[in-house]
Design goal:
The protein is an alpha/beta fold. Helix content is 48%, strand content 14%.
């Protein structure tokens, strides 16, 4: 990437903040904006320029990276950024937007002459902080060189899955991957809840699986958060997990696929959030197994 190219990061929450920091640490010129400015201001210590509004953040940027809650939020923020956008700017849409939002995002990109790259990331807080995300990307071959140092700064691997961002090949893969992640999260939470209900030592459950084909690092990571009471700061919040679960269910319905587990999982996340666990790690699905 030419040293004159600036990367604008819109959204500096659990994921976007570490991504902006790693871009700056890689030597890129980074501007950042967040709706709650206080979440963006600590990035200044790493050389990130914090902007007052989206338009200021993107003005003169060669790459705009959005890491926002969902598709409608990304579109709203990009509309606010429109006065500062320049035709030809590469827009890497990195949040989990779902499929229903794709047409609106693609239409905005065409209207403003942007090169849209569908590029959701796989990973949570720690991989984001460690620059170990997996970037799932679909976009024109012509801009991949521009994006290479950006994606290399935030991730350990980039998987290009197509050249047309409009059809959302990367977003489709992300929903499939998230369906598995959420299913394992709920499986861990329910198994530990059942162990409590039946008076089974959870360490006996984990010990019985150790070294076998049903053992996995993700199970142990989520179980550890629950058993140690380390649900904050969240790696991935319960409310965001519910949002993703509902995007997965909607995508399945549109494709004629019934996803009973994902639908039930969305309800578990909703109940856990209602119990006050919405900003805790999504392993808080555990609490949905109990009345209070």
């Amino acid at each position: 990437m030419s040293p004159q190219i600036t990367v604008a990061v819109l959204g500096t929450g659990i994921m976007g903040g570490p991504m902006a920091r790693n871009l700056a640490r890689a030597g890129l010129d980074v501007r950042a904006w967040n709706r709650s400015r206080g979440k963006a201001e600590p990035l200044a210590a790493d050389g990130v320029t914090v902007a007052d509004n989206p338009a200021d953040a993107v003005r003169g940027a060669g790459v705009v990276l959005t890491m926002l809650y969902d598709g409608p939020t990304a579109l709203d923020v990009m509309r606010a950024a429109a006065p500062g956008l320049t035709p030809g700017t590469v827009w890497a849409q990195a949040g989990t937007a779902g499929l229903d939002a794709l047409d609106g995002l693609a239409a905005f990109a065409r209207e403003h002459g942007l090169v849209l790259v569908d590029s959701p990331v796989l990973g949570s807080r720690q991989p984001a902080e460690d620059a170990q995300l997996t970037v799932l990307a679909a976009g024109p071959e012509a801009v991949r060189g521009t994006l290479t140092p950006v994606f290399e700064a935030i991730g350990a691997r980039t998987l290009w899955v197509g050249e047309d961002a409009d059809i959302g090949a990367a977003s489709r893969l992300k929903l499939v991957l998230n369906s598995w992640v959420l299913a394992v999260t709920h499986g861990t939470a329910e198994a530990l809840a059942l162990a409590k209900g039946l008076g089974v030592d959870p360490q006996r459950f984990l010990g019985a699986l150790e070294g076998g084909p049903l053992d996995m690092g993700y199970l142990r990571a989520k179980a550890g958060l629950l058993l140690d009471g380390r649900l904050t700061p969240a790696s991935f919040t319960t409310v965001t997990a519910e949002k993703d679960a509902r995007l997965i269910v909607a995508a399945g319905e549109a494709a004629g696929v019934r996803l009973d587990v994902a639908a039930a999982g969305a309800e578990r996340f909703r109940r856990a959030a209602e119990q006050g666990h919405g900003q805790e790690d999504m392993a808080a699905s555990y609490f949905a197994s109990f009345e209070d």
